[in-house]
Design goal:
This protein has about 280 residues and is of the alpha/beta class. The chain has a single domain, classed as Metallo-dependent phosphatases (Purple Acid Phosphatase, chain A, domain 2, 4-Layer Sandwich), CATH 3.60.21.10. Helix content is about 40%, strand content about 20%. It has ten helices and twelve strands. Helix 6 runs parallel beside helix 10. The radius of gyration is 18 Å and the shape is globular. Bound molecules: manganese (II) ion. Manganese (II) ion binds next to loops.
Length: about 280
């Protein structure tokens, strides 16, 4: 991943999700840099692109958020096949399923065929989220707690910077800890993989839980493309069908240290917190 330099990177397909445009947490500049430096035949937007939920409560929009949308539309105009699969935070766009906006196709979910012939179900994943499935108010509660964590994290890092300490993502840590504790992630992954098996695909590509991963789960390949709030990650398909997760913040870590805009990796987490997090994981 460290060989990602500033020159353009060509892939067959790119999947990005959980951008949350319209919120303070969105790392729009980091995403713009990614979009400028990558090119692909297919570009999948796997949900939670614009955060309608939070924009209803608190309007937040910057020029960089416009730039992201313009950059994506420009790619579509120039021949990239852009497929938009709305998520739960941009669920209003689901009303326009199977329509096209210019050259952008909106689908509820789809199946992508890799260069090597493997078929992958592509969906956002919220319908497999137990919290949302069984109690929508709980999901809203979680959403507010998450917002608060993001706000605290910003001030926390201002203080850390003053003392010359590197950026640390409190929200990523909290979410990791809390959601692990309720077996959230593993249940989610199992449910999504079960659906892929039921549909007869070789794998599944989703977003929603902000945790980038490629993993074999009993013969089904589970892929999560991560997010652009904390990890700044994307899933890419190379020309030969090989899949890889790109962590753009890692690749741009030099410019990052200057700007302090996004978490570069979990290595920024203090050791004792890291071991706490892993001990929570080992209980499950
Ligand atoms: Mn979501």
């Amino acid at each position: 991943m460290n060989d990602l330099s500033k020159q353009q990177h060509r892939y067959r397909s790119i999947w990005i999700s959980d951008i949350h445009l319209g919120t303070r947490g969105c790392q729009a500049e980091m995403l713009l840099d990614f979009l400028k430096n990558t090119e692909s035949k297919y570009l999948y937007l796997v949900g939670d692109i614009i955060d309608g939920w939070r924009m209803k409560r608190a309007w937040y929009w910057r020029q960089a958020h416009n730039d992201v949308i313009q950059k994506i539309l420009r790619k579509a105009r120039k021949g990239t096949r852009v497929i938009y699969i709305p998520g739960n935070h941009d669920e209003n766009f689901r009303d326009f399923t199977d329509h096209r906006f210019g050259r952008v196709a909106i689908l509820y979910e789809t199946v992508h065929t890799m260069a090597d012939g493997r078929r992958f179900l592509v969906l956002h994943g919220d319908r497999f989220d137990g919290v949302i499935k069984y109690a929508k108010w709980l999901a809203f509660l979680g959403d507010n707690a998450y917002n608060a964590a993001i706000a605290v994290n910003m001030w926390f890092n201002v203080v850390r910077k003053t003392f010359g300490l590197p950026y640390w993502s409190l929200s990523a840590y909290l979410k990791h800890k809390v959601k692990n504790a309720v077996e959230y992630i593993s249940k989610f992954e199992d449910a999504v993989v079960d659906e892929a098996r039921r549909r007869g695909t070789d794998g599944v590509i989703c977003g929603h839980i902000h945790t980038a991963e490629i993993r074999d789960m009993n013969g089904i390949t589970y892929c999560n493309d991560g997010d652009w709030v904390e990890s700044c990650s994307a899933l890419v398909e190379h020309m030969d069908g090989r899949l890889e997760i790109l962590r753009w913040a890692d690749a741009q870590s030099l410019s990052l240290q200057e700007n302090d805009v996004c978490e570069s990796s979990s290595s920024a987490t203090p050791g004792f917190l890291r071991s706490m997090a892993s001990s929570v994981r080992s209980i499950l």
